[in-house]
Amino acid sequence: MRRGISILVCTMLWCDLSNSQTRPAPKSSLTETLAWMNDFSTEHGFLAVHGQFTRTNKLSGAGCVASVEVHYPKATMSSRVKTSIAEINLADLDPKVRVTIDEKDRAYAVSIERTDRQQKSREVLEYGDGSKSKGYTGEQDLYFDSKESAQRFASALAHAIAVCGGTSAPF
């Protein structure tokens, strides 16, 4: 009798253990995901050429409307964009986030675009002389310090877009 109970208990423990290993990990909330993306892109979101920053970028937000800030530290000429801030609605984006890897130039980009490909996301550009212009964009590129960083960010971004209701383009 004791042996039968021992076998039954062991079997139940083994089944519970094997089920817990096959369950998918719980997904983070939108708030947690956006906080992680803000911190991660602040630390890893840049493009450097010959050891010098040519571009830094980060994504931040508190809900489905987020902000993509891009800074070009070397833009001192009046005709060059120094800062770009775009407001994007994650629900308008295609969750099929593209990652472009260029090992030769050490450029690792995460690209997102609106599902309808329309230029409807507001963007403010500030130039080297301090002047500003407003416009609209339909896509954004964020650069990262490594292939792994770009892939991790793309995964989090695709999750955030899906949580906000983003859908793939019909074609």
Please give a quick description of this structure.
By secondary structure, the chain is of the alpha+beta class. 31% of the residues lie in helices and 36% in strands. Helix 2 packs antiparallel against helix 3 (147-163).
Adjacency order of strands in the biggest sheet: 1-2-3-4-7-8
Question: How do the helices and strands follow one another from N- to C-terminus?
Answer: HHEEEEEEEEEH
Biggest β-sheet: count, sense, barrel? Answer: 6 strands, antiparallel
> Which class of secondary structure composition applies to the elements?
alpha+beta
**How many whole angstroms does the radius of gyration measure?**
22 Å
Oligomer: single chain
Terminal CA distance reads 65 Å
Properties at a glance:
6-stranded antiparallel β-sheet, globular, alpha+beta, 3 helices, 31% helix, 36% strand
Could you walk me through the main structural features you see in this protein, from its secondary elements to its overall organization?
- By secondary structure, this protein is α+β, with helices and mostly antiparallel strands.
- Helix content is 31%, strand content 36%.
- It has helices at residues 2-22, 30-44, 147-163, and strands spanning 46-49, 52-61, 65-71, 81-89, 98-102, 107-113, 121-127, 132-137, 139-144.
- The strands form 2 sheets. The chain has a 6-stranded antiparallel β-sheet with strand order 1-2-3-4-7-8.
- A hairpin with a 2-residue loop joins strand 1 and strand 2.
- It is globular.
